[in-house]
Amino acid sequence: PRVDADKQWRERGKTMIFSARLVTSDPTDIKREFVITFHRATDEVEIGERSLRNSGIIGGKFLQKGRHLKELPAGRKIPYTPADFDEGKEITIMGRVFKLLSMDTRCRKIVAGIEDPISEERVKELVIMFRTLITTKYLRVHDAFRAMAPSGKITVQDVMESFKRSSCRVNPEEAAHVVQYVVESSSRVRGTNTEERDTECINYDEFLAFVEGAGADVMDAASNSTKSIKNVNMTLRSPHNATLTSTMGGGTATTSASAAANTSSAATAFKKRNLKKALIDKISERRGTVQEVFRMMAGFGFNSLLSRQEFEKGLVHILHFNVSLEDRELVMGLVFDGRENMDGEITFKQFHEFVESD
């Protein structure tokens, strides 16, 4: 199936955890207790069994985490969805019928559509990522502002679009935090009154101060980590939502080139991890060993080498890895960059190391 990067970003970290029992008439199995976990980002299911004292039941892993499929009446198989999981429901997994008894507190919030509040650490990460995005992509501040502010001011929507173009998704509330942080930090650097400023968009002077004008009293100028942001105040002024907002009385850092490169790569790290996992899942779904998959993609040649062109064809015609051209290029980079020889080829050993690496 096609990898849904938007869904994986939207549902990242969301797991639904239920206590469950088997639906059975066997007196021994009735006593058994299970914990069923559904991972919403990847549609994966895993089941663990609780140990019971003096019962002979040791407990442990009952079903390994994986994209297990449910069978429909017509015989067609499809992935499980969040709608399949709720208190009191019966669900069939791998031929066993389970009754879902109760869910944990966080699961209740997920089912109710209540999002976790944005943490201070998350706001810090976004602020650093936003500044690094600017300093690594544009040579001049003026060019960056013109590209990001088609209306003459950078709005929350403009910030979201800038992150999206760098393969990093942020929601409107997170983007609003970034906008207000830029206004607050620039006001501190310039010595202006924040109360009189519009905290819902960024003008050129504020943008310039954010990129170039922060002092050491606001953020450690020698660092580009979240620990470098000081004096964080998690209260935000916003006419749309006066209670759930976040103002940070900080600034920004003058970043070294190496630190900027490290942070800019973090913008696409999430997408790369998911693409790698999806690729390894596709390889695992093929019958046979990793070596057999490698030989099929390499055309059963005698030199035991796999080129980029052969790998790209194998993704489409052998593994049926249906992703966009952009994502396919990312996958090829993950496999070949730093491993290929002068002819753009890799050995089976290098391919196997990639599959087995964390």
Give an overview in words.
This protein has 358 residues and is an alpha+beta fold. Helices cover 42% and strands 15% of the residues. It contains 13 helices and 12 strands. The strands form 4 sheets. The chain has a 6-stranded antiparallel β-sheet. The protein has a two-stranded antiparallel ribbon with strand order 5-6. Strands 9-10 form a two-stranded antiparallel ribbon. Helix 6 (156-165) packs across helix 7. Mean pLDDT is 76; it is low at 214-223 and 238-264.
Low-confidence stretches: 214-223, 238-264
- Rg over CA atoms, rounded to whole Å, is 25 Å
Average of the residue pLDDT scores? 76
Strand content bin: 15-25%
Tell me, what's the shape? Answer: flat
User: Helix-strand pattern, N to C?
Assistant: HEHEEEEEEEHHHEHHEHHHEHHEH
Structural class comes to alpha+beta
N→C terminal distance: 23 Å
- Record the strand order, biggest sheet: 4-3-2-1-8-7
Keywords:
13 helices, 6-stranded antiparallel β-sheet, alpha+beta, two-stranded antiparallel sheet
Structure, briefly:
With 358 residues, the chain is of the alpha+beta class.
Topology:
Layout: H1 5-10, E1 15-22, H2 27-30, E2 34-39, E3 44-49, E4 60-66, E5 69-71, E6 77-79, E7 90-93, E8 96-103, H3 105-112, H4 120-137, H5 141-148, E9 154-155, H6 156-165, H7 172-190, E10 201-202, H8 204-212, H9 257-285, H10 290-297, E11 305-307, H11 308-317, H12 325-336, E12 345-347, H13 348-356
Antiparallel strand pairs: 1-2, 1-8, 2-3, 3-4, 5-6, 7-8, 9-10, 11-12
